[in-house]
Please model this.
Amino acid sequence: MSNWTFAASFPLVLLGLAIWGLTLWLSWTNWKRQASRRGVAILEGLRVLIVTLLIITLLKPERVQQIQRTEKPNIVVLHDTSASMTTSDVVVSNQVVSRAQWVEGVLTNQFYAPLEAGAQIEVHAFAQYPPLDNSDSTNAIEGTDLSLALDGTLQQFDDLKGVIVLTDGDWNLGLPPIGVATQYRDRDVPVFPIAVGRQSPLPDVAIDDVDAPAYGLLGETISIPVRLRNDFPREVTTMLELYDGDTQLARKEVLIPAETELQDAIVWDPKETGTLDLTVKIGSEPDELLADNNESSFQIGIRLETLKVLVVDSKPRWEYRYLRNALARDPGVQMNCLLFHPGLATGGGRHYLSAFPSTKEQISVYDVIFLGDVGVVPNQLKESDLELIRGLVEQQSSGLVFMPGRSGHQQTLAESPLADLIPVVLNDERPQGIGLQNESQLSLSSLGRGHWLTRFDSDGQKNDELWRQLPGFYWSAAVEKSRPGSEVLAVHSTIRNSWGRIPLLVTRPFGSGKVLFMGTDSAWRWRRGVEDKYHYRFWSQVVRWMAHQRHLSETDGIRMTFTPEVAEVGDTMNFQASVLDSSGYPAQSGNVLATITSPSGRSEKIEFALSPGGWGVFEAAFIPQEEGQHHITVRAEEYGRKLEADLQVTRPLIEKIGQPINRQALQEIASVTRGQLAGTEGLVEVIAALKSMPEPKPREVRLRLWSNPWWGGTLLLLLVIYWVGRKIVGLV
Model:
């Protein structure tokens, strides 16, 4: 059935008739004035036709067609098959089954059978990983896209009577489903979500994430950060253990508060080089229902590297002497010193330099530079030296340690090229620092308690106690506050200002490198009673932490760093390749190309771009699409340089087992679509509600002639013909 309707008011109709009558009178008059010529008569008739069509358009004519349904309407049953549906928290006949098992049971029993008399039932599974492009769907991130499932159903069926969704509501991909729910409301199609599962988490202790580094150095204490979760309504004490196969490498006791997450770390001293497959485990609780998330495996490479360190100071103070001895005795460190004796020549002897490295080629070999009580003063550092240090940290991923002293020379660095690198704001009114009559100590901040640099014991509580027992200091730098972007690891135990306690151990990232500020000159006193136990360990950890990024991958004449070290599918990996020419100078031009081979064997080529600054650094980015080990080959053919490395890519775990249902999202969908939310026991009520619904109304199709482009094009064509015709017959 069809009919025409007009959306015009009565005054508008009268106006249209008046215009039409006036046009008819003007056309008749004009025809008579032109001696009743035939051509004029045709043009005037065309004008009357155009005006008539315009008036009809003004009345907004629409052709309304009612399409009667000859088939049963559709009721679609969507059931979630994502990983979260394997959670076992549904009680059936006094037995606990998984959400997926419950769904499979009600589908097998055809719970929707009472609806088949009045509707066509369509059952569809939905889950996750629709590829965002034309790539292989097996490489996409696993998750649940509830919005896509609802939208696809709405687009596929024109005569929907209702939709039943069997799910836990755990959507973690795609758009919020509330947006699609509004489209259901516009179509007058209700959605009936069936919430499958518990509203509270299962009693569970789990390892949520292990953020292990890509490699470690032999002789280095490696810290492996772990995120633990406790869903019990009580605190849980468990053992955190590290295994290489069946061999236990490390263990520690952890206390996880009730119903919360805990960020902790387990430390380990590797004894041999090579690539190791390690596993982090926690113990199971007697009443824990999910034990398969109590361990996580990862791969790490252990290497033997020699780190190059430069120590620069102005006086052979105690801090300098003991630091020099600690680094000289470290088998993994190759050290050079530069000592500016006041009024004398620079220090000489084993490991000593006669002058500061004055070129990029000379300074770029150093992984870490220690700047003691030196500055831009006569017979010490020059502005050009500081420019080299800044470029080394920013472009070459090296580390820089500020260790001010009582002469106050470092105060001059606040107006130098290193100003942006200093992690703190110094008090320029007290360049010689703050002397004390009584001993003070470094007090760890909340961040410092868990930081790798300040970890002397794997047990956090014992580590805090050790720091409180360490010998203190009688002098510190005059610090106002930390700078934005810096991380305060330790503060002065007694002195504070308007900003709070004075920060004395502070780190700061700069470019691709790291910076550390040590605001006391008494770390050497930590040797009291224990010799080198803590003093050596602290500076060893500082050197290795700062040099870590530089040694991710290197070979003769080329070094590559990348972040993050272990990427997830879809992350952007940023690469920096430092290339030397055949003479050992940083490359200033040329092409650097890389080939990345994914685990499936697919290869992708990327081109590096030269970074400004003259340090021979080339940059590129890559977004991995597959999980597993990728192999990268970097070539600088012009200089005969080639580097190969392996990249670890993991798949982000966003589909978690054991989480409670998302009842709020399902309630919003039901409310917006005028449906009904029910639990696993409410299927009967949902079936009754669908049966009582009236039959869908006939589908209405409207043809809006007044806004149809073909109609507008026809009017435009007639106007063109009329204008050209006036020129032909001689009318102006």
